[in-house]
Every structure is written in structure tokens, then in C-alpha cells.
């Protein structure tokens, strides 16, 4: 029987995993500057956490969630996105308490799960990096989150980016717009896709997000939510734009953008790239917005929130297409060449001693001849070799060689094990013979 990974998943092999680690490291560095701290939540939650927050008419809930009943007959869902779990943890752990600094800023990294058709940059197990900030209604916080998203993408080398911006307004704005949208769509009901027909009276904004070409043609002439904003909602959106201009962040307003989750209100945004990875077309890399009211839905006090999510797989596809290499030099510091079985214990001692001093070190574990060991050292781009055989063992010494210059010197075991940096310095200063 041939075993294969499940459809829509990927094995992240060592060379690729180095790229993942660098992206995650860059993200942690940027987040630290903005004072966002990490949270780690379970990969599965109660079904209600997502069905209640994501919206019963969203594609995630109706088509894509991996949900099941466990042995205790509990309805469980593998997390399809990161925000709802963070909000649940925020409420359950009372992170809204008076002793907690406001706004409360956090970030997450990890796998998410959606049952959808696998394609480039879109898998059934995929990975997200995201941030959430709770406890402030300020438009300035919306813009900080946007600036953070832009900074993160720029930190990994992406500069050809476009920010698309919209607002979903407050409750009154949405209520007024909802009715206007229903009035516009009802005459076209027979022409709508089956999904859009079902959503027309439940959540007509979902029709704007339809991927069906016929639906898209119909909604092209739909009324704009920007015409239904209350004075308060308009003020919030105006201030967001003023702050973006103050930071010299250019943007385009897309009044048809609604995002794929029902919990958003006020500011929503997408950061897009025109990378060759997706044929040079503008493709979303990172998206998010404000979600006032989500904390209350999961049993917490009235608390505003704003955040974004970014797909790591999609980002890495773009980095590869743009030939942006984040992986640092992985050359080996020292390869220990042991000649004969008698040298093996001391070779292992040297390798471990060097690692404890902070150097990368390796040795042979396949009983290779000396020639084969030196080939292995060259293949690993070792900067130095340490060679010991019967004669070196008898003298308590080892031969240190700089692989680039050929300079070498004989040093004691104790020197190597106590301070290899000093030994290297002596070699660099010419205290040795050229070979």
C-alpha cells in the first residue's frame, strides 16, 4: 500500500521549512516593534465559536468547515480562521479586565483548515499569521493595523503592493444598505446563482462577494454602501483616510469589497500584490478590518476589535516568484574528521563541545574513509575541519584547517574545548602552516 499525504495538504521539507522560519522570524520582529504579543489557541474549538461569529451564510460555515462529533458527542470544528478562537480566549481568560493594558494587542501563527478545492496558494490545511487589537474604537488603531500589515510585507521584500479600502459602516448603515441591496437584487433573483438566491434575504451583502460570473455582472451596478453611511460611520471612515494620508500610505476605495466573514464592520481592507506568482494580476495577500461586537457574541463585554490575517503559503509563492531569498547562510562552522575507530569517542566529544560554545559542528556517522569525510565537509561548506587520528590521539592534539585558505595549525583538545574562538583567531593571525 502506498501512503500519501491527504489531499490539500503539503509536506514542508527542510529547505522549505527554512523559508517558513525566516518569514515567522521577520513577523515576530515587526510585531515586537508594534507591541503585539503572541497567543496560542487550540487547533479545534466548539462548532458554535465559528458558526456564531463567521456567519451562518458564509462559505466557511456552509461549505468549508471540518466539523465532527467527538466521543463525548461534542460538536467540534478544526479552526478555519484565527480571529474567533482568539476572541474566545480573550473572553474566557478575562483579558478585558481593568488590570490589562488597553488596547490589548496580540498575534498568532499556525495551521487553519478549510474543505475547499485545492489550488495554488490555497490548501485544505493552510497557515496564517494574524494580529488582533481589542479595546479601542479609534480610527488611528485601524490605521496602525494596516501600517503593521504593510510593514510586515515590506520587511520580507515586497514593495509592489496595493491597499484596497472600504467601510461596512455601523449597524444603522448596514441596516439601511441591506434593504437597498435587497430592493436592487430582487428583480434579478431568477438570474442569481443558487447560493446567492439563498443569501438574498438572509444576508444580501454575501451576494457582493459571490465568485459566480453572472452574479458579479449583476452586482456591478448595485448601490454602494458609501451612500448609506450614517454621519458617525462617515466620520470614522474619513478619519481612517486622513491617518493613511498622514502616513503616506496610498490606497484605493473599493465599495464592493465586503470580506468573507460576517463579523466585520466599519473599516475593512485588503493588501494586494501583482506578483508573477498569480500571473501579474492583483491578488490579495493580507486582509482584515474592524469587528466591533464580536466579543459580545462570545459572551464578553462590549469591546471593539480590529485585526488582519495573512496566508503564509501564498506569501511564500510570491517570494519565490519574485526571487526573494530570506534564508541566511547555512554553512557549517566545523566538521570533525575522525580517522579510525579509536578516534570516534573523541570526535564526538569535540563536536558536542563546539556546539556548546555556539558553533555548528558535525562529524561522520557512516564509517566513511578520510577522503569521504573531507568530501562531506566540502559539501556542507564547512569553514574549518578538525582532524584526529592515532598520532593526534597519542599527542592529545587535533589538526585545525581553514578550508578556504588552506592554513592549518595543530592545537590541543583542551584549547578547542575551552575556547575555539581563540583558536580560530590564532589561525587567522597566521600562526600555522599552509597546506
Automatic annotation (TrEMBL):
- Does the keyword Methyltransferase belong to this entry? no
Matching entries from SUPFAM superfamilies are given as: Class II aaRS ABD-related, Class II aaRS and biotin synthetases
Residues involved in L-histidine binding = 81-83, 114, 128, 132, 259, 263-264
Localisation: Cytoplasm
Claim: Endoplasmic reticulum is one of the keywords in the record: no
Task: Tell me the GO molecular function terms.
Answer: ATP binding; catalytic activity, acting on a protein; histidine-tRNA ligase activity; transferase activity
Q: Which InterPro entries match?
A: aa-tRNA-synth_II (IPR006195), aa-tRNA-synth_II/BPL/LPL (IPR045864), Anticodon-bd (IPR004154), Anticodon-bd_dom_sf (IPR036621), His-tRNA-ligase (IPR015807), HisRS-like_core (IPR041715), HisRS/HisZ (IPR004516), HisRS_anticodon (IPR033656)
Q: Where is the Aminoacyl-transfer RNA synthetases class-II family profile domain?
A: 23-345
Q: Which GO terms describe its biological process?
A: histidyl-tRNA aminoacylation
Provide the top EC class: ligase
- Which GO cellular component terms are attached? cytoplasm
Which superkingdom?
Answer: Bacteria
- Which controlled-vocabulary keywords does the entry list? Aminoacyl-tRNA synthetase, ATP-binding, Cytoplasm, Ligase, Nucleotide-binding, Protein biosynthesis
Which EC number(s) does UniProt give?
Answer: 6.1.1.21
Q: Which reaction does it catalyse?
A: tRNA(His) + L-histidine + ATP = L-histidyl-tRNA(His) + AMP + diphosphate + H(+)
The subunit structure is: Homodimer.
Q: Which family, according to UniProt?
A: Belongs to the class-II aminoacyl-tRNA synthetase family.
Q: Which HAMAP family match?
A: His_tRNA_synth
Name the chain's protein. Answer: Histidine--tRNA ligase
Q: What is the organism field in this record?
A: Ligilactobacillus salitolerans
